[in-house]
Amino acid sequence: MRRLAFLINFNQNKWLGGLNIILNLINSICLNRKFKNIKVLLVTNNKHFTKNFKFLNKVKIIEDKNIFNLSLYKKIIDKLNLILFGKTKYLERFLIRNKIDIISHSSVVSGKNSYTKSIVWIPDFQFYHFPNYFSWKYKFFKKLNIKIYINQASKILLSSFSAKKDLIKINKSAIAKTVVNSFSFRALEKKELTSINILKNKYDLPKKFFYLPNQYWIHKNHIIVIKALIELVLRFSDIKVVSTGFNNDYRSPDYFTNLMSIIKKNNLQNNYIYLGVIPYKDSMSLIKNSLAIINPSKFEGWSSTVEQAKSFGKSIILSNIPVHKEQNPKKAFFFNPDNHKQLSEIMLKVWKKKKNIKNYYNKRHNVNFFLDYSDKFLKIINSLQ
Predict the structure, then answer these.
(1) How far apart are CA 97 and CA 121, in angstroms?
(2) CB atoms within 10 A of CB 265
(3) CATH of the domain at 32
C-alpha cells in the first residue's frame, strides 16, 4: 500500500481555488475504485476545515503545526541539503516518520535522493506574462525554484497545455519531467447544495443574476465587468452581477477599494453585489442558479470557475485568453478582455434570452469525466518507481 500525501501549506482563505482543486482531486480518488492500493493522506496545520467535507472520512488527516512553520535557519538548512545532497533534513524526518511515499500538489520538493517521491504542481506562470505585477525578487525565486524542480522533483505537474508552452519558453530542460493533468469538477447533488430559497434569504439575492466568482486579484479584471454594467444599466436598470472572492491582493492593495469606489460613484450598488468569501457549497449553488457565469480574467492557469460551470452545464461568458479556449466549454461566449462594449453586448444578449439558454448537464457524463481525471493522475503515480 503506497501512501500518497497532499500538503495544504498555504493560507486557505487567500487561495480558495487551490484548496478546492486539491480537495476535488481527493474526492475523485475516493470515488475511484482503481485506487485500492493507495492510501491518501492530507497534511495541514489546521484540520478544522476538513469536517465540512464528508469524503475526507476516507482520508487520513495529519495535523502538524511545525512542518509548515520551520524557522528561517531550518528552511535554509533544508534548501542547502536539497541542492547539495538531493534531500532535506527536517522535512525528510517528517516524511519518514509518517511513511509518506509520495507528496503531490504543492511547491514542496523532497529531493531526488529522498525517501519520498514528489510531484510539484505549478498552477501557472503569471509572472512570465505580467512581470510588472511582481517584484524582481519574486521572479528570481520563481525561476530558481523551477531549476530546483528540474533537478530534484520526480515530476512537474501542470494543469494546461498553455502552461506547458510557457514552461518551454522559460526553461526547456523542464519538459522531460513535465506532465499535464487538467482538473475537472463534479457537480454537487441536490442534497449537497444550498437551496435557492436559503441562498436568497442568506444573501438577499435577486431572482436573476450573472455570477462572477473570482478572487479580487488585479489580473482577474473585474473592472471590465463594471464598465460593461455602467453602459448596461442605462438600458436595463435591473441587470445584476453577484460577485464573491477574497478581496485583497498584496501586489495591488488598493485594487478592491478602487473598484468599490467606481461602483459607488456610478450608483451600481444594487447592480453589482459583492458577498465576500462564502462556503464552497454556497458558491456551487450560486453557479447552478445563476443565469450565466462570467470570468473576465486576463490570465488563468486552468480556471476552476470554468470547470465548475461546465460540471453543471451552465452558460459561461469568458475572456478569449488561450487557456479559456483550451478548456472549451460547450456554451461559451468569448470576448476581448479589454473591450467592455463587446462584453456588454454579450451580457445583454444572455440577459434578454434566458429562456433560450438550456443547460447541457448530463450526470453520467459528468461522473465519468470526473473519474477520468483521477484515472490520469493514477497513471502519473504509477510512473514513479
Answers:
(1) 24
(2) 9
(3) 3.40.50.2000
